[in-house]
Amino acid sequence: MTEPLPESLISLASRIQLLALDVDGVLTDGRLYFSAQGDELKAFNILDGHGIKMLQKSGVTVAIITGRTSPLTARRARDLGIEHLLQGREDKLDALRELTRELGIELSSVAYMGDDLPDLSAIRHAGLGISVPNGHWFVREQADWSTQAAGGEGAVREVCDLILQARGHLADIHAHYLGEG
Question: Are the C-beta atoms of residues 13 and 127 closer than 8 Å to each other?
Answer without folding.
Answer: no
